[in-house]
Amino acid sequence: MPSRPITERLSAGERLLLDGATGSELQRRGVYVSKGAQEGQLGPWSATANIDAPEVVRAVHEDYLRLGADIITSNNFWTSAARLSMVGLGDEWERYTRAAAELALAARDAVNPEAYVAGGIAPPNMGDLRAEFRDQVRVLAEEGVDLILAEYVGRVEDCATVVEVCAESGLPVFLGVRHVTPDGTLQYGESFEELGAALEGRPVAAVLLMCSDPPAISACLPKLRAVYASPIGAYANIGYHRNPEFHGTPDEHWHTIDQETYPPQRYAGFAAEWIALDAQIIGGCCATGPEHIAALKPVVKT
Ligand SMILES: [Zn+2]
Question: By the 8 A CB rule, do 80 and 124 touch?
Fold first, then answer.
């Protein structure tokens, strides 16, 4: 367990290295993460790997920790009842949720007790957002994660809702805002001024722009900085690992990105830009791997 709260280190101005992708990295290592995927949607994505391939999930966490990640994200992205119900496992959401937290915590304890485990959860885009988040957060807090990362949130209204629910845990809450645009807006055209107003006075310890093209993050970070005073960060989406086992259609957004465009050194160049724009927490989202985190380390941890 870390000796200092993450919020204290951020307040002191320290920069923290976040891990890279989990789901796409599991896929790259041969884990089938696409159960229940159908045309246009992903099923519960990597949630089933927590029980089907726990040793691989733990190995991904450990690899990121060995490369110097200060924060790893538990594989709870869609361990919600709503998403697991798509593969007939809705009643087992708690088992999958606990397994994900325990794998991340065990990896942390084994490799670097000073690193933080973020319980990372995403809106299921179905069911009752508030109830789904409340269940997940309660279990993650019981398991002993160090913070909650409410990620892949697209709408301003949802950002406010998830922050409020996550804060009920008493843990620091980080918010990950998805698919920001090169035009400097949120996914659905909402403005950063609207986001700032919705977060005003809410207990959110950091806001990160995530799962977006790197140049879009560069365009949006100054807008986020202008409306939000606490620590900010970024972890971009650089593409999608195609897998011959995949029978569904991944998020269309990922098809539009050429992962060859962002080799590790180029990605690290974007990270340098983000640091100049005041980002304090930097890592990688879809299709980034250990090689990207290795390239980020000397840039982020100077
Ligand atoms: Zn992503």
Answer: yes
Chunked mean pLDDT (size 10), the chain, 302 residues: 97 98 89 77 90 98 98 97 95 98 98 98 94 97 98 97 98 97 96 98 97 96 98 91 45 48 93 98 94 97 91
In angstroms, the CA 274 to CA 248 distance is 34
Specify whether the CB–CB gap between 114 and 72 falls below 8 A.
no
pLDDT tens digits, one per residue of 271-289: 999 999 999 999 999 989 9
Neighbours of ion ligand 1 (CB under 5 A): 211, 237, 285-286
Cα Dmax for the chain: 47
> Ligand 1 center to residue 237 CA distance, Å?
5
How many A from CA of 240 to the centre of ligand 1? 9
Ligand 1 centroid, distance to 20 Cα (angstroms)? 10
Both tokens of residue 239?
A: 């593409």
Rounded to the nearest angstrom, the distance between the alpha carbon of 285 and the centre of ligand 1 is 4
Looking at residue 279, what DSSP letter applies? Answer: E
C-alpha 256 to ligand 1 mean position (Å)? 13
Q: What is the DSSP letter of 272?
A: H
